[in-house]
Amino acid sequence: MSNSPLPDKGKPIEHFVSTEPFDPLAVEKLTPAQEKYYFASQRQLMWWKFKKHKLALFSALFLLFCYLVIALAEFVAPYDLAHRHIGSIYAPPQGIHFFEDGKFVGPRVYQRVRTLDMDLQKRIYTDNKSKSYAINFFCDGDSYKFWGLFEARKHLYCVEEGGTFFLLGTDKLGRDMFSRIIYGARISITIGLIGIAVSFILGITIGGLAGYYGGWVDVIVQRIIEVLQSIPSIPLWMALAAILPVTWSPILVYFGITVILGLLDWTGLARAVRSKLLSLREEDYVLASQLMGAKPGRIITRHLIPGFMSHLIASATITIPAMILGETALSFLGLGLRPPVTSWGVLLNEAQNINVIVLYPWLILPVVPVILVILAFNFMGDGLRDAADPYE
Asked: pLDDT tens, 201-253?
């Protein structure tokens, strides 16, 4: 209890009003670091937290590099997609050397000499170390039509005239495997992005309607989802892929496969969206939006979906690798994309025979970028999911 005397009855209480400008930080002085954090936008908070996840950041940079490479596939690949080296069929990968006789000579490759082993019925390639060829950068090589727009001949690297350089070997027709993997990445990586667009549109729309309205709409949607999920995925993929007409062009087959993958992968996302909206639609801000005359589409897209954005990001980064694996599996089985279209699955289709793998193990190398890209998507998704909830 204070010992200060009480004011006389009826006498106004004295008080002081400051005429100084109001300072919102005067009550509690913030350090520069605290002020930067408290006044940061949601995007800044997400970026700061995402940077702390080093593996996710490295994965994002790796995927960015992959998409940059496929955008410049014609330039990065040393040979044209269909260029056949008749004298280098099933040639193993070539090594690069930088020194000759103790002197630095830059990146060079030795001349290849081919012999035939009649006992193994196998071509044997050896290096002739008395003859080598320089690897040049930003040089002229096979002509190509960049993005189908204009003719060009510039490549990132190529070997001088008279030599060959097969970083990852060649296939049964003498085509450079490294160039084919680069071109195949353009199909295999982008098929996930197109498929996820189809899947997200269906999943968010159908799941959002079921969760927001409930009732008979929810019942019908759930029964459709249960029917689709009860069908084994691989046989369904095979059946739908077999429906595609053989007379279709490779581009139409490509888009057909992406639509098939998108139509089959929306059910899980729809159920997740539905369960979230069932709980969020009872919140006060949803009722306030309804009283203000907001339409259901605006309430779902502007108020409800941002509330579980972290879950959507996690779903996207899981679904994209699944679609890449789906296309790879279909093409590997010969039911997806087919030559002349080139994808990682089409390249792996040539490695089905165990005898081929034993004799020419480099033909299975396209599985390496498949594994790396899928791991990168998963690691990046883990970091994005955490970054989407920066206050946790």
From this structure: 888 888 888 888 888 888 898 888 888 888 777 777 777 777 777 777 777 77
Could you report the per-residue pLDDT of 155-202, keeping only the tens digit for each?
Answer: 998 888 888 899 999 988 889 999 999 999 988 888 878 888 888 888
What pLDDT was estimated at residue 16? 62
DSSP 3-state of 301: helix
Query: Residues in the chain with pLDDT < 50?
Result: none
Q: Give the pLDDT of residue 373.
A: 92
What residue spans of the chain are helical by DSSP H? 32-38, 42-52, 54-71, 73-76, 177-213, 215-230, 233-243, 250-264, 267-280, 284-291, 296-298, 309-332, 344-349, 354-359, 367-387
Give φ, ψ of 292 to 5 degrees: -85, 0
Taking every pair of C-alpha atoms in the chain, what is the biggest distance, in angstroms? 121
The residue with tokens 């995402």 is 50
Q: SS3 for 187-227, per residue?
A: HHHHHHHHHHHHHHHHHHHHHHHHHHHCHHHHHHHHHHHHH
Residues with Cβ within 8 Å of residue 89, at least 6 apart in sequence: 123, 170, 172, 173, 174
pLDDT of residue 5: 59
Residues sharing a CB contact under 8 Å with residue 191, sequence separation 6 or more, in sequence order: 254, 257, 258, 261, 323, 324, 327, 343
The whole-angstrom separation of Cα 16 and Cα 29 is 22
d(C-alpha 338, C-alpha 236), whole Å: 19
The H or E element spanning position 305 is none
Task: Write the DSSP assignment of 35-79 as a string of letters.
Answer: HHHHT--HHHHHHHHHHH-HHHHHHHHHHHHHHHHHHTHHHHSSS
Residue 141 φ then ψ, to 5°? -145, -140
Please give the domain boundaries of the chain with CATH numbers for all domains.
94-165 (no CATH), 180-387 (1.10.3720.10)
Share of the chain above pLDDT 90, in %: 12
200 close to 269: Cβ distance less than 8 angstroms: yes
| Three-state SS sequence of 261-277 | HHHHCCHHHHHHHHHHH
Q: Could you give the 3-state DSSP secondary structure of residue 388?
A: coil
